[in-house]
Design a protein that fits this description.
By secondary structure, the chain is mainly α. It has 2 domains: about 80 residues; about 30 residues, no CATH class. Helices cover about 60% and strands about 5% of the residues. The protein is built from 2 helices and 2 strands, in the order ααββ. It has a two-stranded antiparallel ribbon. Strand 1 and strand 2 form a beta hairpin. Helix 1 runs antiparallel to helix 2. The longest helix is centred in the middle third of the chain and has 41 residues. The model has no long low-confidence stretch (mean pLDDT about 85).
Length: about 110
Protein backbone atom coordinates (compact mmCIF):
# COMPACT_ATOMS: atom_id res chain seq x y z
CA UNK A 1 0.00 0.00 0.00
CA UNK A 2 1.15 3.51 -0.70
CA UNK A 3 1.91 5.95 2.09
CA UNK A 4 -0.98 8.18 1.02
CA UNK A 5 -3.44 5.34 1.30
CA UNK A 6 -2.06 4.38 4.71
CA UNK A 7 -2.35 7.99 5.87
CA UNK A 8 -5.93 8.17 4.65
CA UNK A 9 -6.80 4.96 6.50
CA UNK A 10 -5.06 6.29 9.61
CA UNK A 11 -7.13 9.47 9.37
CA UNK A 12 -10.35 7.42 9.13
CA UNK A 13 -9.25 5.24 12.05
CA UNK A 14 -8.53 8.27 14.24
CA UNK A 15 -11.91 9.79 13.33
CA UNK A 16 -13.65 6.49 14.17
CA UNK A 17 -11.88 6.41 17.55
CA UNK A 18 -12.88 10.02 18.19
CA UNK A 19 -16.54 9.18 17.63
CA UNK A 20 -16.13 6.19 19.94
CA UNK A 21 -14.65 8.34 22.71
CA UNK A 22 -17.39 10.92 22.35
CA UNK A 23 -20.18 8.31 22.45
CA UNK A 24 -18.63 6.05 25.12
CA UNK A 25 -20.30 7.66 28.13
CA UNK A 26 -23.67 7.67 26.40
CA UNK A 27 -23.24 3.96 25.67
CA UNK A 28 -22.32 3.36 29.33
CA UNK A 29 -25.47 5.21 30.38
CA UNK A 30 -27.71 3.32 27.96
CA UNK A 31 -26.20 -0.03 28.96
CA UNK A 32 -27.05 0.63 32.61
CA UNK A 33 -23.47 0.55 33.88
CA UNK A 34 -23.85 4.08 35.25
CA UNK A 35 -23.95 2.86 38.87
CA UNK A 36 -20.35 1.66 38.59
CA UNK A 37 -19.10 5.08 37.40
CA UNK A 38 -18.74 7.64 40.20
CA UNK A 39 -19.28 10.89 38.32
CA UNK A 40 -20.57 10.35 34.81
CA UNK A 41 -20.57 14.07 33.90
CA UNK A 42 -16.84 14.51 34.57
CA UNK A 43 -16.12 11.35 32.58
CA UNK A 44 -18.39 12.61 29.79
CA UNK A 45 -16.55 15.96 29.60
CA UNK A 46 -13.14 14.28 29.56
CA UNK A 47 -14.05 11.75 26.88
CA UNK A 48 -15.75 14.43 24.78
CA UNK A 49 -12.67 16.65 24.93
CA UNK A 50 -10.43 13.70 24.02
CA UNK A 51 -12.77 12.77 21.18
CA UNK A 52 -12.84 16.30 19.82
CA UNK A 53 -9.04 16.51 19.99
CA UNK A 54 -8.77 13.25 18.04
CA UNK A 55 -11.31 14.55 15.53
CA UNK A 56 -9.25 17.70 15.02
CA UNK A 57 -6.13 15.57 14.42
CA UNK A 58 -8.00 13.37 11.92
CA UNK A 59 -9.41 16.33 9.97
CA UNK A 60 -6.02 18.07 9.95
CA UNK A 61 -4.33 14.95 8.61
CA UNK A 62 -6.98 14.59 5.92
CA UNK A 63 -6.64 18.24 4.85
CA UNK A 64 -2.85 18.03 4.72
CA UNK A 65 -3.10 14.97 2.49
CA UNK A 66 -5.59 16.75 0.24
CA UNK A 67 -3.31 19.79 -0.15
CA UNK A 68 -0.32 17.53 -0.88
CA UNK A 69 -2.33 15.72 -3.56
CA UNK A 70 -3.34 19.03 -5.20
CA UNK A 71 0.25 20.26 -5.23
CA UNK A 72 1.44 17.02 -6.77
CA UNK A 73 -1.21 17.32 -9.49
CA UNK A 74 -0.09 20.89 -10.21
CA UNK A 75 3.54 19.75 -10.43
CA UNK A 76 2.55 17.00 -12.87
CA UNK A 77 0.74 19.55 -15.04
CA UNK A 78 3.82 21.77 -15.09
CA UNK A 79 6.04 18.81 -15.98
CA UNK A 80 3.89 17.80 -18.94
CA UNK A 81 3.56 21.36 -20.25
CA UNK A 82 5.74 22.10 -23.26
CA UNK A 83 7.90 25.18 -23.42
CA UNK A 84 9.59 27.13 -26.22
CA UNK A 85 12.21 29.87 -26.28
CA UNK A 86 11.20 33.42 -27.14
CA UNK A 87 12.97 34.39 -30.39
CA UNK A 88 13.62 37.92 -29.09
CA UNK A 89 14.71 37.58 -25.45
CA UNK A 90 15.49 33.83 -25.37
CA UNK A 91 13.56 33.10 -22.18
CA UNK A 92 11.58 29.91 -21.68
CA UNK A 93 7.81 30.42 -22.09
CA UNK A 94 4.80 28.07 -22.46
CA UNK A 95 4.26 26.84 -26.04
CA UNK A 96 0.66 28.08 -26.16
CA UNK A 97 1.68 31.68 -25.39
CA UNK A 98 0.72 34.32 -27.96
CA UNK A 99 2.89 37.10 -26.53
CA UNK A 100 6.10 36.82 -24.51
CA UNK A 101 5.36 37.91 -20.90
CA UNK A 102 8.94 39.18 -20.50
CA UNK A 103 9.68 41.26 -23.60
CA UNK A 104 6.08 41.60 -24.88
CA UNK A 105 7.01 40.48 -28.39
CA UNK A 106 4.32 38.67 -30.39
CA UNK A 107 5.13 34.98 -30.72
CA UNK A 108 2.06 33.75 -32.64
CA UNK A 109 -0.63 35.59 -34.49
CA UNK A 110 -4.00 35.39 -32.76
CA UNK A 111 -6.67 33.40 -34.53
CA UNK A 112 -9.72 35.57 -35.22
Amino acid sequence: MSSKRISKLLSLFIAWNAVGWILSTYIIEIAGIRAEVDNILILRYKTTILGLALLIVAVSLYLVLKVMKQREAERNILRTRTFIRCPICGRRIPADTVMCPYCLSIIKEEIK
